[in-house]
Amino acid sequence: MGPTLSMIQIHASPRFLALCAGTLAALLAGCASPPPPAASVPAPTPVAAPQPLRPEPPMGPPSAALNALDYRLDAAYHLYGKNNDRIYRGVMPHFLYAIGVLEVQVDTRGNLLALNWMRAPEHAPEVIAEIERTVRQAAPFPAPVQLGSASYIETWLWDASGNFQLHTLSEGQGPKGQPRRAMPAPRGIRLVSAPGATAR
Questions:
Q1: Phi/psi at 100 (5° precision)
Q2: pTM
Q3: Which of 184, 99, 105 has its CA nearest to residue 148?
Q4: Tens digits of per-residue pLDDT, 64-122?
């Protein structure tokens, strides 16, 4: 019969016992440690909602003008075409009811940017309003595709009948002896100043 464990005398040094105790402690500590944190998942990047397409502003007929003088001629023909029944036919009277000098600025598509009076017929505010209304109703003007944008100055020659000529296309004025006609009473027209305003 072989020796049993109780019959065997184990001789262990203190160093061996300390090493065993340390190993056991490390094993216990490893079992008690919490599991490593799960890898964080990045949040999905928000996708911007597509913006609705804005309709482009209207565009006038292309103008091949290379300078302000050529563009003024295109604009004058454009205004005449829009107001054929209001153009004074023939030579105008020597004495006009009103004369106005107006600067018109348009963008590359021919839409109005600004109206600036260089010389307003202040004695006839109804004419100021009517000229501004006429210009706005004629928009969009020829598109200055070669210039990018355009600014020109036009002189309005206004007859007492309410008809007019533009100096650029004027047939001139008659002799000094012609009598001056009276201007009809205004019909509720009010002054306007911004391109988006309308006359009544």
A1: -130, 145
A2: 0.62
A3: 105
A4: 999 999 999 999 999 999 999 999 999 999 999 999 999 999 999 999 999 999 999 99
